[in-house]
Design a protein that fits this description.
- It is built from 22 helices and seven strands.
- The chain is mostly helical.
- Strands 1-7-6 form a three-stranded antiparallel sheet, with no helix packed on it.
- A hairpin with a 2-residue loop joins strand 2 and strand 3.
- Helix 12 (325-338) runs parallel beside helix 14.
Length: 671
């Protein structure tokens, strides 16, 4: 496809009165949904392993989950017609891990194996030979209820807490989410607790052979002899034998160090790491070590469930895998600003002050490796001081950079926040010029080879989407492309472009998200947007517009390259497509695409001013293991169902991204 740009073209606007009404309705919806404290937050949807694991944990340690019947109701509502549970809506097949964990959770809570839900689930599990191909975490859960032998789970010794920084498997070489999860899990794995299912069931009905005949030691994918994976499997079995024979010295002291690390890292709201896995394994580890339910650490952790970590929908209680108030609030402020709402407005001022209060001004795990740098980042969640992330910090700096000249008496405070945020962000730039989410140069691929790491991602290398957001933020602060850090970042972005013109989306689905993070950043920083590599990206975006005027991309695109940029239209992905086109000068072809995209958003907006989004457009883990783009999906232990991935829906994406795109079209037409 060829694309010509006309320097002085302008948008053919789709009925400006309708566009104005759509923008105003979206703004009004934000005023109605703002929390009294000043923030906005949408629910974070994921898959049913979240509720299933909370039910299993409550069974294992012996407490009743708040609203337990309604949590079970949420699971039953999400069962697919074929009997399985999936990783994301519209997945071509169910997920073996979700289905087995939900099955085990329902059996733990007294469900009859002959009830309709379990009969259908069991038929699907047997048809897919699911038991032989389970991920690590599912095997751990089955071990804790006496189904999977502990000696055939990956060994995760608590002694890992002692490894020096230079050693590849030091905990700080693992990604933030893996590190926070591993530490409590080492305690659980060392103690090998078992609470058998009711009646002593070992879920024999799920096995393709007799329970005694199944070789539990078979990995999901056999390792090539003398490969790193093969070596690590041998080491794993040796560690199991040493643990069985009590040949590991100072074991009790290592467990104590892990417990102390956990307690130091508990979040202010009672969780850990701002995500579900370390929180739930932490509870099991502590209670198994003798911490009582009324101990302050434990009671605080359980109490958080009934505050902002669960939500009601359709008469059922869902539990979030994470929460997004900082991210949602910052992007809502940005959308309001670009829609022309004054920063003097009370609601905007309250949101801005709330966001300023969330800046993390104490050292976190990042400070273990980065010395002599003042804290200054923002975290994704409201109570997670240990793990600020570059992406939230970039959006915070973008917002502050755009509002700094209009905020009156808040100006000194904002300038200080910018100073600290910029210092911290520059210190987090990786050696290849990009930025990762939580850590610097967290890219040791050898970590992905160990048996424990057959899930999602265990490392946190740079990504173009985070890097693009940083560039756009620095542009708003007055930096240009001649700054050394920006030059290196631009080189990194150019090196990551796909041949077809798009960019991989690490934290959003998928190439539409990655491309939409890059193109507006390039425009903001002053890049020549007529360069061939830019035009290739624009041509790719144009080629992916749906007949209804919108854009959409299925999560399955992480495994099937033919699906990149393809899927049913969604509000958030349509907004990303529009923002890509707005990054270049208009042409007749771009004008038509913009007009059709805006018409799609206006026509699908609901009467209350917001949009529905039936599909997941955010990414936790694509399931690649290495945390970065790959063209070798045939080697991965998953298909388009993403059984090793973790997909998300941030419920406010459907709102502030369309508002942001419509506002940019209304107020900043290309020239």
């Amino acid at each position: 496809m060829t694309l010509s740009l006309l320097e002085n073209s302008t948008i053919v606007r789709p009925r400006s009165d309708r566009l104005s009404r759509s923008i105003q309705a979206a703004i009004d919806w934000l005023w109605e949904t703002q929390d009294s404290s000043g923030f906005w937050v949408g629910m974070v949807e994921s898959n049913s392993t979240i509720e299933a694991e909370w039910l299993l944990a409550s069974y294992i340690v012996g407490f009743e989950l708040p609203s337990e019947k309604d949590v079970i109701g949420a699971l039953l509502q999400r069962q697919r017609p074929d009997g399985s549970w999936g990783t994301y809506p519209g997945a071509p097949d169910g997920d073996i891990n979700s289905t087995v964990e939900v099955y085990a959770a329902l059996r733990a809570k007294g469900f009859d194996p002959n009830c309709d839900e379990l009969v259908r689930a069991r038929a699907w599990i047997l048809e897919h030979d699911a038991i032989r191909n389970l991920r690590v975490f599912t095997r751990y859960w089955l071990a804790m209820v006496g189904v999977w032998p502990w000696e055939h789970t990956p060994n995760l010794p608590p002694e890992i807490i002692r490894l020096p920084l230079w050693f590849p498997f030091n905990i700080y070489n693992f990604a933030q989410w893996a590190r926070a999860t591993m530490v409590p899990l080492t305690v659980v794995a060392a103690r090998t607790p078992v609470r058998p299912l009711p009646g002593g069931s070992k879920l024999e009905e799920l096995f393709p052979c007799t329970y005694e005949d199944l070789d539990f030691s078979i990995p999901a994918k056999r390792a090539r002899t003398f490969s790193l994976e093969w070596l690590f499997l041998k080491i794993d079995r040796g560690l199991h034998k040493a643990q069985r024979l009590k040949l590991i010295p100072f074991r009790e002291n290592s467990i104590k160090l892990c417990l102390e690390w956990m307690i130091r890292h508990q979040d202010a709201d009672g969780g850990w790491g701002g995500i579900q896995p370390p929180w739930i394994y932490g509870l099991i580890a502590l209670i198994n070590e003798g911490y009582t339910m009324d101990h302050p650490v434990v009671s605080k952790a359980i109490g958080a469930l009934t505050t902002h970590w669960s939500y009601e929908r359709n008469g059922a209680t869902h539990i979030q895998a994470s929460e997004s108030p900082v991210w949602d609030t910052l992007l809502a402020i940005l959308a309001l600003h670009e829609a022309g709402v004054s920063s003097d407005k009370t609601e905007v001022r309250k949101a801005l002050e709330w966001a300023l209060n969330q800046q993390v001004l104490v050292p976190g795990d990042w400070a273990i490796k980065i010395k002599n740098v003042r804290p200054g980042g923002w975290a994704f969640e409201r109570a997670n001081n240990h793990y600020p992330d570059v992406d939230d910090t970039a959006v915070a700096l973008l917002v502050l950079g755009k509002l700094r000249s209009t905020i009156g008496e808040l100006r000194p405070r904002v300038e200080r926040a910018i100073e600290l945020g910029v210092e911290w962000t520059l210190a987090m730039q990786c050696r290849n010029g990009g930025w990762a989410a939580f850590d610097k140069d967290n890219d040791k691929e050898i970590i992905s080879k160990i048996p424990f790491c057959n899930f999602g991602e265990a490392i946190d290398p740079p990504s173009v989407d985070v890097t693009g957001h940083v560039i756009e933020a620095f542009a708003a602060l007055g930096y240009d492309k001649n700054h050394p850090a920006i030059r290196r970042a631009l080189d990194y972005i150019r090196s990551e472009q796909e041949e077809a013109g798009s960019w991989f989306g690490r934290w959003g689905v998928n190439h539409i998200y990655g491309t939409a993070a890059v193109l507006p950043a390039l425009k903001a920083i002053g890049e020549d947007m007529t360069q061939p590599y830019v035009l290739r990206a624009i041509a790719w975006i144009l080629s992916r517009q749906n007949d209804d005027g919108g854009w959409g991309e299925t999560c399955a695109s992480y495994m099937d390259p033919e699906l990149r940029g393809r899927g049913p239209s969604t509000p958030s992905q349509t907004a990303w497509g529009l923002m890509c086109l707005l990054s270049v000068n208009a042409s007749p072809e771009i004008n038509a695409a913009l007009r059709n995209g805006v018409e799609h958003l206006c026509s699908t907006q609901k009467s209350d001013g917001t949009w529905d989004e039936d599909y997941y457009t955010a990414t936790g883990f694509p399931g690649y293991g290495i945390g970065a783009r790959t063209n070798s999906t045939n080697r991965l232990q998953q298909g388009t169902e993403l059984s090793r991935g973790f997909m998300l829906s941030f419920n406010m994406y459907r709102h502030y991204f369309p508002l942001l795109a419509l506002a940019r079209i209304a107020t900043n037409p290309p020239r």
